[in-house]
Amino acid sequence: MRRAIVPGSFDPVTSGHLDVISRARALYDEVVVGVGANLAKQGLFTVPERVELLGEAIAGWDNVRVDVFDALLVDYCREHEIQVIVKGIRAVSDFDYELQMAQMNRDLAGIETLFLPTNPLYSFLSSRLVKEVATYGGQVSGLVPPNVHRALVHRLDLPDHRLGD
Ligand code: PNS
Q1: Does 17 participate in catalysis according to the annotation?
Q2: DSSP 8-state secondary structure symbol assigned to residue 73
Q3: Average pLDDT value for residue range 139-164
Q4: In angstroms, what is the span from residue 74 Cα to ligand 1's centroid?
Q5: Which of 15, 25, 127, 149 is catalytic?
Q6: How far apart are CA 70 and CA 5, in angstroms?
Q7: How many angstroms separate the first and last alpha carbons of the chain?
Q8: What number does the ligand 1 atom closest to the CA of 101 have?
Q9: Which of 25, 50, 87, 90 is catalytic?
Q10: Residues 6 or more apart from 48 whose CB is under 8 A from it?
Q11: Is the pLDDT assigned to residue 165 strictly greater than 70?
């Protein structure tokens, strides 16, 4: 059984994340979407909320499940017999840090990282920017799945029309 993990903060999951997850599930028998809970950052959504939003967004993807990890990623991988970490790379600016982490993870546990170039449709997209744009009433529909769109409207207390359809 070839298992991969797509780790991240997912605060919240975007269409770019979903693109990477869907491509990972075509390459591996099983894919775990790992929500990192040990990140000190205070998010817009709590970890359980992020898990719920992810679960709804991937509903019907039979070889994908969502889980939370709160330790070293490689320890989670060893414990769950996951051989590969999958990361989306949007631009060269992502690469420096991602390369460092990939090399550290391989050094720590021999776990390989597969970099997937993101779909150019989403190469400008990040959870941080989605939150910022939505906060000021910009259009983010299409950049996030519909359930996340609804959650943003609710959390940011915005009238529906300010975020588009
Ligand atoms: O979405 P993000 O914020 O880029 O995700 C970063 C994440 C969660 C993948 C990364 O910070 C991580 O793997 N954290 C777990 C702790 C860990 O293993 N740190 C050492 C990385 S070499």
Answers
A1: yes
A2: H
A3: 86
A4: 10
A5: 127
A6: 14
A7: 41
A8: 22
A9: 90
A10: none
A11: no
**Mean pLDDT, range 119-131, rounded to an integer:** 96
- 8 C-alpha vs ligand 1 centroid, how far in Å? 6
132-155 mean pLDDT: 95
Torsion of CA 113, 93, 18, 156, to 10 degrees: 130
| Residue nearest ligand 1's atom 3 by CA | 9
- Distances in Å between the alpha carbon of 136 and those of 8, 12, 30, 53, 103? 25, 17, 38, 22, 38
Neighbours of 141 (CB within 10 A): 15
Cα–Cα dist 73/79, whole Å: 10
CA of 162 to the centre of ligand 1 (A): 33
Pairing relationship of beta strands 30-36 and 3-8 according to DSSP bridges = parallel
Which of 41, 73, 131 has the most ligand 1 atoms within 8 A of CB, as the residue to mutate? 73
Q: Point out the catalytic residue in the list 17, 23, 25, 87.
A: 17
Residue 38: what pLDDT? Answer: 74
- The confidence band for 159, taking pLDDT boundaries of 50, 70 and 90, is confident
Cβ contacts of 164 within 8 Å, gap of 6 or more: 139, 140, 141, 142, 149
